[in-house]
Amino acid sequence: MSLSERTPEVLVAGGGNAALCAAIAARRAGRRVLVVEAAPKFYRGGNTRHTRNMRCAHDSATGTLTGPYPEEEFFDDLLRVTSGNTDEALARHMIRESKSMLDWIQEQGVRFQPSLGGTLSLGRTNSFFLGGGRSMLNALYRTAEALGVEVVYDAEIVALDIADGTFRAATVRHDGQEHRIAAPAFVAACGGFQADLDWLKEGWGERAGNFLIRGTPYNRGTVTRMLIAAGMQQIGDPTQCHAVAIDARAPQYDGGIITRLDCVVFGIVLNKECRRFYDEGEDIWPKRYAIWGRLVADQTDQTAYIVFDAPNLTRFMPSLFPPVMADTLRELAGKLDLDPEAFEATITEFNRHVVGGRPFTHAEPDGNRTEGLQIEKTNWAQRIETAPFYAYPVKPGITFTYLGVRVDEQARILCADGTPSSNMFAAGEIMAGNVLGQGYAAGIGMTIGSVFGRLAGQGAAQHGT
Asked: What residues does the FAD-dependent oxidoreductase 2 FAD-binding domain cover (predicted)?
């Protein structure tokens, strides 16, 4: 049967966590579901392939979670990282729905394991996927396919037929041909636009040319553009995104989780002028790691350097690439092509102002700080004095963008006049800006995808006749 001959009742655009949750929910409601994934099979799943965990509210400890994570604490964490830039009603709805997600996602074949160690400190709040994101994704695909969900790869949506807020059909390019696929309901779950560097430059300017994209080159936001052009409400700032500091030696695309660096709290971060530019100890790492991509983006050549010494080498999960190492600070600066005198002077000045003496623990703010610097380090301050010395060069690593379409509590896409579409839904990164106006907390992207994916699939199933 050719693609044009398919007659789905629910058409799902995308192939990651949000799309699969939607497809499974709709199929379990008895609908014929077709998933069209723009990527080839090997690269299916977008950023889900590179994730490790998800953040859900829960009332008590489990076999893999060390304690409760109440809804109100989750909401407070979200408010803190977004500085209140969130749709509070929608965020609270998502958090409530997340409480049942841990059981539901396991019913779809996903398994969890105890939290990873190091600076993550997430054993109570976040559930880690056994085998990582790719294993989680494969479990969802196995369940979807066993239920009868059809999946077509290398299938890019190139046009949408929308009239008065109602989806009629999508034009899909596959095997060199274009196919019109009509369906009673449509779910957009095909990610952000981070792989479209030209679009990133519209918000960030030419410096976006130095950004690295942590996921695949297939998240270009084509469906997002089409929906907005068709009169769907836009939400989000084009410069807001999930951006972390990743190893500058990572590839342009698809470096994933193994190029992320979690060692900022153990040292200091310098720019090319050998100056510190932010407090490395502001809060525990899971609540601050996603600000560092934006901070580095504001530096010369969008480059910075995490510097630490020998005692800290084994305290975090390293990058795929080894750190740059030297026996002296001046030698290390030379290997980084930095001014040795300025490099050594900054570190010497930092060391002089460290006020320590408290027990060191990365699991919570420990009060070991500096006093008298223009930019203080408020926790985890340690002198960088024990050879050998190490550094990682870093650049902004863009995970996903926040500009997308506005939705309601049923994951229905809102039209320009604020009324919900009669049969279009969105889930995942394409609507993340509803919850994430700015900032990020570890694992919340998977929460957004899973919760709104399930809601979108359930809602689409009601229209899939």
From this structure: 10-437
